[in-house]
Structure formats: structure tokens, C-alpha cells
Amino acid sequence: MTFIVAAIGEWNKEKFNTYNEALFGDWYFASTPKELEEILIKVDEPRYIFFPHWRWIVPTEILDKYECVCFHMTDVPYGRGGSPLQNLIVKGHKDTVLTALKMVDELDAGPVYLKKPLSLKGSAEEIYNRSSSLVWSMIENIITENTVPSAQEGEVTLFKRRTPEQSYLPNDLNLEQVYDFIRMLDAPGYPKAYIETERYRLEFDQAQSENESLFARVKIKLKEK
Fold this sequence. Notes:
Layout: E1 2-7, H1 10-19, E2 26-30, H2 33-42, E3 48-53, H3 60-65, E4 68-72, E5 78-81, H4 84-90, E6 95-102, E7 112-119, H5 124-145, E8 157-159, H6 175-183, E9 193-196, E10 200-210, E11 213-222
Parallel strand pairs: 1-2, 1-3, 3-4, 5-8
Antiparallel strand pairs: 4-6, 6-7, 9-10, 10-11
């Protein structure tokens, strides 16, 4: 039996190398749509294609032909849509669930295999690493128990994908909100929280809150003309 994991991020590749050998079947990893296409050409029909963290639209022909499973960081149908981690933290959530759902043409609208609790403590990178480990326990559950997904229930709430411009650090936040704003963007590949002066752009990461003060690393560079 063949399984494919399609994901971005070094943390996902590291988890794949750590966990797949303990599971039955043949496993393949794709980090881009081209790599996924190449794997689908050369392997037997996969039982599942898992998408732990993917930034591209999966073509309808793949969704129709294979059982595709994605992992979304909200208690769907609440929080369907883009930038779930950042939207949750901006809205003040401290915890969430990681949801495994069958992929359909409508974004995050497919039936649910299972949900597991997920803490939102720490930087975005720490949360993504935590969720990546959780993904593999959910994958093991799905493939060993042949879990049948169930339709979503409840009121639909949609999240919008954040833009790089929304990483500008607002000046009306309290210190706890500033801490949350910096940490929610602190992961490789994400636009850091920033402010600008007339000449400079200041980008922040590695935020720590201590004794009613906030400490963070700052990168200063000249603004692009």
C-alpha cells in the first residue's frame, strides 16, 4: 500500500523522516506541486495523499481520483480559510484543535476524520512543529483504523488569508497583544512583524514577555525605494 505526504517546511520533512519508517506501506514525500506530480506518475495508486501544510490549490482531478486529507488548525466549520494560526491568535485564542478532513473543491469544507487538541503557546515555528508531531499520530489513526469521515456540523465562520502588509505592527496594542503579534509571525517563510520609520524597516522576532516588559530581536534595514 502506498501513501504520499505533501508538505512545505523543513519541520514537516524532518517529521516525515522520523515517523514514516514506523508505519506500514511505502511512503513518499513531496514539497512542491511538481514533485507531487512526478510521484503520482511513477507510483501505484496511493491509498491516501496527506497534506499537513500546503500553500497551493490541489487540482480537482487529484481530489476526484485520490483520497486527499488535509490538516486544518481550527475546529471547523469555525475558521475555514486562510492563515488559521494567525487569525486564531489575533482573535485571542489560547488553544484550538487540529482537524483532519477530506479535501473537496470547497476550501476546508470536507467531512472530518478526527480532531485533536492543540496548544497555541509559543512562536509560530514552535506551534507548527507541535502540530507536525500531532499530524503523524492522526495519520497513524486514519490508516490503521480506516477512519470514515463525517460531515461538518455547526455554523460556518470564514477566515481570510493575511497579506504581508498586515504584518505591520499596530501602535494601539497592549504589550500582551504585541507579544502575540510578533510570535504568530515568527516562523520561516512568514513576513515578520515590522514597523517603519522614514528611512528604516524594523522587523521583530524571538519575542519574550518578562516582568511587564517585552524583549524581542530586531533586524533593521533601509527601506526599499
